[in-house]
């Protein structure tokens, strides 16, 4: 039997699906929306608002440092601003935006209708939003943290960081790390159990592999920072001695705990970008990525090795020689899998027929910039050299080369790539290219001189410097570059704003991509696919024949998805996903109330548990009638129907 | 359209937190004017007055309920060896400061007077030896020892004992 | 203000020289890798259509590309291993104590100044100073570093990599200057509001002038000579100064702030923030919070006695 979306039966199916997957109007409907595409877009939009705020902070810092002896910002405000810049970029922009893109794209790319736990997904977004808003409200009340985004003790401890500033920071961590953990669990389960039939492990797109590795890294890394920030809150609130040397604690304990999370954190930001680059290179070379197995192994080994590097942030703390050498070795070795990936991408371009359109242009920018960042990373991996340039502007240059080059450029390329899918319109190409060149030039002008500044002795986190140092001219150059960078971002923003309304209408697959998200309309309906696709090989849409089966037989009067087996993705059973629900929002409010209150009084923890409990009860309260016995049986014959 | 709920949320959060009155706690005075200094005049040790009741001017200072001031006061309390007689509030040869017994009054102005004027039986007079604003910071800290300052402005502990020295390899 | 040399790639001592060698090696290797990879990238991207036609779909082209990728990966691994070997040998060289008998110096970090001790077997011969460290040229110096409050970091780019000063720990570091001169050092771990103004100066001088300096520092403070200086000393002792500062030979024994016994012998004030001149000294006294907002030192409540006080402080050579 064949099914046809255009036939009357197909139309009726579509209407039933639309009713089953519809969202309610109004503010309650908006807050109850648990569709992955909505959550993904909200993540991305919110992340870019924080990006803009952090960008303003960066510009303020650059204006302050443009000339020696500047009095624009007093030291207290400057310390708050650089702390907020780092904290916002790392916790409120970089990780959430990657999660947001993943939440939007992954279910489409694996051919399913939603993520595995849609309400959990909504909760993770609200926790992120509330955590970020909390931090910024506190910042505007002069309660913003001022001990650096890394908050070393004892400077961030109860004696040297008076008031609630650092408590605000530590609790914001709790918000955002909870959000990231929830998102990661979501994605792992979805990727493992909800892939289209036929998408066995060796046919998973590289972007999905990257997100899988990334989510597993999040699950292993975040607990360390949650522990660390909890110990810090305990030290500050109820006089524990985790970090008090006088009572058997150790200031270095904080550094180990923080960097055990902090180093994987940068790979958590970077690994999804690797997946994005693979997607774009493949599509725009019009051929599969060269060396798929090597690429997957490179991603996995990056994930593993990334956990063994953290002490390279502590080379100046007086470690034994063996420790220095071990962590130097690990820090250098991680360059090898990344190198393999770069060579495979170049091989793909070599063997393919590349079209230098805007997403590929961003990827080219990524390769050039990230290459420099990676090379300075190998320099920093060497302990003696690091002991010279640690905590100087050399490191500032390195980290921006790897984060902006290695994460932002691929992200922008990916957003341009998936812009037609998300909005239904094409991004205007020419302003986009202008934006790219402004970004590329502005970025290099800003950050390349900083290598020199670091080698010539300029430390980080200083609100001013003397004129006799001779650092003035390079700083002025960096500030000028920062302005160009800002202009580039504004041009891109203007392009997006214009194209969302007035851009050319996009087809289902404007780039000719090979992954499943291009098999549905732009933008996709709430239920993603009328008949979920199946996969016959790697590069699904390129190997798909006219006879490629689709999944029919899922009920369309309720939210049903197909669960497949982990390794070979054969159909296993159906699952029913929940209706829209306001309870994730309410639970997030209750949890936020507990978290925010507990920085003032420890009593908020037991007291706040009550509304959280109420929220969870509302969340899990059973709805509707229980399934009839024969329906509850896990295995039913599922029909994989042919398309006409 | 989609941003309106976000804005509403933001305003709600902002309104709620303003009520917490954080500005007083969190402001930091990093530059002290050398010539200005809150004077402590009209201090009375007791509440009784002869004749018609005249309201005493409020000698509250910007250092009350201020976390930075209390933290600085904690530092100065150690630096100027208040610890030597008062220990860390428990008292030794000097009276305890953590309790409810205030021989000369617990108002900030009273404690200021005790510090700058000295008191019988061993309290030195620190007038001219500690800057006025530093005395006010110590006053705020001493009051926090007795629980007279908001707990949100008071550190839970300090790292006051000299740490054991661990030699690196 | 004499700022001193401060470049990691312009070394003046054996440790920094060794690190600078490593830097240049890594720089040139990196430059080579960058040029090579970028060249391959550009060729891959802009290869002519004709050339692509020749290799399209041919299994042989796939295999050859695979061999090139494999080869490049192996070359990358070899370069990494090579750099690692150089790195480990440099680490070992820097950790090895030099043969000659070192000069021991203890440095204690404070918010936002450096306490410097030259210990001696005879306690009365020990020297305490602040923010300016003299060392003899050509002799290794063994530093013992700790902190009284938060984490700081001792860094003199021209001479050695940095080492943190951590409360509860004592870290050791070696350094040596091979030429006489002034070397700028700076705190390199964020330590609060005035981290930007926590610098110090290393003065490397020939052995003889170093010994003379050390002998000078051992003496107690110069007794006031003129009437102005005598009055200045009286003003000094009546002010809050003595509660924080030490001037050996007087009754000022405060341990909270820098030792002032030989204040006038130093080239800079306020941990490298200002040169040690008459006007800057006055500014430090009268309005330290304008120079370093948040600094622990209060403004000095002196009015008519300022000039006398300055005369006295300038006599503390």
Main β sheet profile of chain B: none
**Sheet with most strands: strand arrangement of chain A:** 1-4
Q: Tell me the overall shape of chain A.
A: globular
Radius of gyration of chain B, in angstroms, nearest whole number: 20 Å
Along the chain, the helix and strand elements of chain B come as: HHHHHHE
Q: Would you tell me the structural class of the helices and strands of chain A? A: mainly alpha
Termini separation of chain B (Å)? Answer: 62 Å
Multimeric status of the protein:
heterotrimer
Q: Radius of gyration of chain A over alpha carbons?
A: 25 Å
List the helices and strands and how they pair.
The complex is a heterotrimer of chains A (644), B (169) and C (317).
Chain A: H1 8-20, H2 26-32, H3 36-66, H4 75-109, H5 118-140, H6 165-193, H7 206-238, H8 251-285, H9 292-305, H10 321-333, H11 335-351, H12 358-381, H13 383-389, H14 393-423, H15 429-455, H16 472-502, H17 540-543, E1 550-551, E2 560-564, E3 571-576, H18 583-597, H19 604-620, H20 629-632, E4 640-641
Antiparallel strand pairs in A: 1-4, 2-3
Chain B: H1 3-18, H2 22-26, H3 67-79, H4 83-86, H5 108-117, H6 132-145, E1 166-167
Chain C: H1 14-46, H2 49-55, H3 59-95, E1 103-110, E2 113-118, E3 127-130, E4 132-136, E5 141-147, E6 152-156, E7 160-165, E8 169-175, E9 181-187, E10 199-205, H4 207-218, H5 227-238, E11 246-248, E12 251-253, E13 268-269, E14 274-275, H6 278-286, H7 288-291, H8 306-314
Parallel strand pairs in C: 1-5, 4-10
Antiparallel strand pairs in C: 1-2, 2-3, 5-8, 6-7, 6-9, 9-10, 11-12, 13-14
Helix pairs in contact in C: 1-3, 5-8
């Amino acid at each position: 039997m064949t099914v046809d979306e255009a036939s009357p039966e197909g139309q009726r199916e579509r209407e039933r699906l639309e009713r089953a997957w519809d969202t309610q109007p109004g503010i309650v409907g908006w807050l109850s929306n648990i569709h992955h595409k909505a959550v993904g877009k909200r993540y991305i939009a919110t992340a870019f608002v924080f990006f803009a705020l952090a960008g303003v902070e960066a510009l303020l810092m650059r204006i302050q440092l443009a000339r020696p002896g500047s009095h624009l910002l007093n030291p207290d405000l400057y310390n708050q601003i650089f702390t907020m810049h780092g904290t916002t970029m790392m916790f409120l922009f970089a990780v959430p935006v990657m999660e947001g893109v993943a939440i939007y794209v992954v279910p489409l790319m694996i051919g399913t209708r939603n993520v595995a736990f849609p309400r959990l997904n909504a909760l993770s977004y609200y926790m992120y939003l509330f955590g970020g808003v909390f931090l910024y409200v506190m910042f505007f009340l002069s309660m913003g943290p001022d001990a650096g985004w890394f908050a070393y003790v004892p400077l961030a401890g109860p004696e040297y960081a008076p008031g609630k500033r650092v408590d605000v920071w530590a609790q914001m961590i709790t918000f955002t790390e909870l959000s990231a953990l929830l998102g990661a669990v979501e994605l792992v389960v979805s990727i493992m159990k909800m892939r289209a039939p036929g998408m066995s492990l060796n046919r998973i797109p590289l972007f999905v592999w990257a997100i899988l590795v990334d989510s597993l890294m999040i699950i292993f890394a975040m607990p360390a920072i949650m522990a660390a920030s909890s110990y810090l809150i305990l030290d500050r609130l109820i006089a524990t001695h985790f970090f008090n040397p006088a009572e058997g604690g150790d200031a270095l304990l904080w550094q180990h705990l923080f960097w055990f999370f902090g180093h994987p954190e940068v790979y958590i930001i970077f690994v999804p970008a690797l997946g994005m680059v693979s997607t774009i290179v493949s599509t725009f070379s019009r051929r599969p990525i060269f060396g798929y197995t090597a690429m997957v192994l490179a991603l996995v080994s990056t994930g593993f090795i990334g956990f063994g590097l953290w002490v390279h942030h502590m080379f100046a703390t007086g470690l034994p020689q063996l420790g220095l050498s071990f962590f130097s070795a690990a820090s250098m070795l991680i360059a090898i899998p990344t190198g393999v990936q770069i060579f495979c991408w170049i091989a793909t371009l070599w063997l393919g027929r590349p079209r230098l359109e805007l997403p590929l242009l961003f990827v080219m920018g990524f390769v050039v910039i990230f290459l420099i960042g990676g090379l300075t990373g190998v320099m920093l991996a060497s302990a003696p050299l690091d002991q010279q340039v640690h905590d100087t502007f050399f490191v500032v240059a390195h980290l921006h080369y790897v984060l902006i080059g290695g994460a932002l450029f691929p992200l922008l390329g990916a957003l341009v790539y998936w812009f037609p899918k998300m909005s239904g319109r094409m991004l205007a190409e020419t302003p986009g290219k202008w934006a790219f060149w402004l970004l590329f030039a502005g970025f290099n002008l800003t950050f390349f001189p900083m290598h020199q500044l670091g080698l010539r002795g300029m430390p980080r986190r200083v609100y001013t410097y003397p004129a006799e140092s001779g650092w003035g001219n390079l700083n002025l150059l960096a500030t000028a570059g920062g302005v160009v960078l800002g202009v580039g971002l504004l041009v891109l923003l203007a392009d997006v704003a214009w194209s969302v309304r007035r851009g050319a209408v996009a087809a289902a697959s404007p780039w000719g991509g090979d992954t499943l998200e291009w098999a549905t309309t732009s933008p996709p309906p709430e239920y993603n696919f009328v008949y979920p696709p199946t996969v016959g090989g790697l590069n699904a849409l390129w190997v798909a024949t006219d006879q490629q089966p689709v999944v029919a037989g899922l009920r369309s009067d309720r939210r049903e998805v197909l669960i497949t087996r982990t390794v070979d993705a054969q159909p296993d059973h159906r699952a029913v996903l929940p209706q829209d629900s306001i309870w994730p929002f309410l639970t997030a409010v209750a949890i936020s109330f507990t978290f925010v209150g507990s920085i003032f009084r420890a009593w908020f923890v037991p007291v706040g548990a009550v509304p959280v409990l109420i929220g969870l009860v509302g969340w899990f309260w059973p709805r509707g009638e229980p399934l009839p016995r024969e329906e509850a049986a896990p295995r039913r014959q599922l029909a994989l129907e042919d398309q006409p | 359209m989609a941003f309106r709920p976000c804005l509403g949320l933001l305003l709600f959060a902002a309104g709620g937190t303003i009520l917490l009155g954080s500005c007083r706690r969190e402001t930091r005075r990093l530059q002290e004017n050398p010539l200005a200094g809150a004077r402590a005049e009209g201090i009375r040790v007791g509440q009784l007055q002869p004749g018609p009741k005249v309201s005493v001017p409020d000698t509250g200072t910007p250092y009350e309920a201020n976390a930075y001031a209390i933290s600085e006061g904690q530092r100065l309390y150690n630096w100027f060896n208040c610890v030597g007689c008062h220990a860390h509030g428990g008292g030794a040869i000097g009276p305890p400061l953590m309790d409810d017994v205030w021989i000369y009054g617990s108002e900030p102005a009273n404690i200021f007077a005790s510090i700058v004027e000295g008191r019988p039986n061993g309290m030195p007079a620190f007038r001219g030896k500690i800057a006025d604003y530093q005395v006010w910071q110590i006053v705020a800290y001493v009051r926090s020892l007795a629980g007279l300052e908001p707990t949100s402005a008071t550190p839970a502990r300090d790292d006051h004992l000299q740490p054991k020295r661990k030699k690196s390899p | 203000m004499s700022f001193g040399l401060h470049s990691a790639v312009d070394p003046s001592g054996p440790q920094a020289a060794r690190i600078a060698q490593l830097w240049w090696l890594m720089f040139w290797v990196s430059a080579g890798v960058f040029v090579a990879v970028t060249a391959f990238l550009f060729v891959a991207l802009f290869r002519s259509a004709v050339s692509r036609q020749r290799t399209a779909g041919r299994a042989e082209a796939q295999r050859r590309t695979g061999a090139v990728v494999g080869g490049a990966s192996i070359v990358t691994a070899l370069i990494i291993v090579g750099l690692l070997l150089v790195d480990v040998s440099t680490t070992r060289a820097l950790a090895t104590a030099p043969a000659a008998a070192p000069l021991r110096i203890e440095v204690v970090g404070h918010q936002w100044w450096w306490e410097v001790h030259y210990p001696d077997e005879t306690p009365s011969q020990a020297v305490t100073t602040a923010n300016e460290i003299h060392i003899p040229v050509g002799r290794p110096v063994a530093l013992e570093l700790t902190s009284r409050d938060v984490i700081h970091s001792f860094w003199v780019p021209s001479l050695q990599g940095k080492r943190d000063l951590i409360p509860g720990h004592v870290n050791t570091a070696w350094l040596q200057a091979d030429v006489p001169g002034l070397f700028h050092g700076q705190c390199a771990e964020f330590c609060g509001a005035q981290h930007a103004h926590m610098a110090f100066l290393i003065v490397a001088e020939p052995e003889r002038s170093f010994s003379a300096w050390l002998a000078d520092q051992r003496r107690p403070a110069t007794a006031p000579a003129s009437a102005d200086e005598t009055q200045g000393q009286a003003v000094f002792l009546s002010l809050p100064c003595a509660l924080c500062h030490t001037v050996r030979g007087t009754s000022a024994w405060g341990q909270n702030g820098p030792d002032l016994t030989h204040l006038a012998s130093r080239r800079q004030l306020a941990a490298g923030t200002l040169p040690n001149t008459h006007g800057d000294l006055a500014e430090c006294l009268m309005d330290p919070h304008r120079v370093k907002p948040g600094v622990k030192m209060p403004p000095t409540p002196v009015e008519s006695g300022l000039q006398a006080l300055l005369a006295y402080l300038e006599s503390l050579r």
